[in-house]
Amino acid sequence: MPQLTVHWRHEGFSHDAGQRSNEDISGTNVDSVHTGVLTDEHQEVTDGRPVLVEDETSRVYRAADLPPDTQVVVAKVTQPLEPMLEKARRAGFEVVTAG
């Protein structure tokens, strides 16, 4: 599978389950957007399932590593890329097209 440049995003969430005032939580629930590549040709891939490799940190994410409802956004889907995207969906990524 070739590498596909993507970005992924999820709505902000807090890791603190305790009760806090609005003053305490202002600015903590910010949307998160990351850029990177979707690929199954990486040293961390041992089972053929695609992973996301973040540009900034080179961190590798499997679908289970991402927060719930994280969307992987691709700019445009062409016929040659469709099998790769379907493989990513089967691995658990929520792949959507921009626009």
UniProtKB/TrEMBL annotation:
Biased composition (Basic and acidic residues): 8-23
Region annotation (Disordered) ranges: 1-29
Protein name: Uncharacterized protein
Domain of life per record: Bacteria
Origin organism lineage: Bacteria, Pseudomonadati, Planctomycetota, Planctomycetia, Pirellulales
